[in-house]
Amino acid sequence: MKAVLIKGLGIPLSLETVPDPTPGPGEAVAKVHACGAGLTIHHARAGRTRVEYPRILGHEIAGEIVAVGSGVSEVQVGDAVTAYFYLTCGHCHWCRINRETLCDNLAGHIGRDIDGGYAEYMKAPARSFIKLPPDLDWRNQPAEAAVICDAIATPVKVIRKARLSYNDTVAVFGAGGGLGLHMLQ
What angle do CA 144, 129, 75 make, to 5 degrees? Predict the structure, then answer.
């Protein structure tokens, strides 16, 4: 498959041919239809976040499951999916109370600790794939679906955690960026 790799700090990204991923137990492979270029990509390229080289970056995907490993029940072939950035266990105290970013067993991040979506196919733990809503037109607008899953999901989660209501007054810092604009909306 074709993939865009980061090979080191200050080295331009390169388009290369790499082996197609195959799912192991508990894993799934998605055909990537689109992958966004969020701030995490820029941080990795600038060296502000740890990345083991070489790495396929990208986590803001819209894709379709094409293969599953043994023991997978979360997704099946044909499911439209996006990917959850954090590689969480799903079982610890923090995961069970919807605070996954504090996971006791965090295995890292998609596109930083395992290969991401800047490729034709992406392999990840099956629990890291999230089914897209059936009314989201991801086939005709894959780029929008890929980006919206991150750019809207993050502000929605923040608003829910903060328990904001319509009569609260808040300040949104960075309101000119992708997340900030969606937070305002």
Answer: 115
Helix (H, G, I), strand (E, B), or coil: what is residue 5?
Answer: strand
Q: State yes or no: cis peptide before 134, omega within 30 of 0.
A: no
Q: Are strands 27-35 and 121-125 parallel, antiparallel or unpaired?
A: antiparallel
Element (H, E) at 160: helix 153-162
Residue 110 pLDDT greater than 90, yes or no: yes
Alpha helices in 14-111 (DSSP H): 39-46, 93-96
Instruction: For residue 78, report the phi and psi dihedrals to the nearest 5 degrees.
Output: 100, -15
Q: CA nearest 58: which of 71, 80, 43, 46?
A: 43
User: What is this structure's pTM?
Assistant: 0.86
**Using CA atoms, how far apart are residues 51 and 43, in angstroms rounded to an integer?**
10
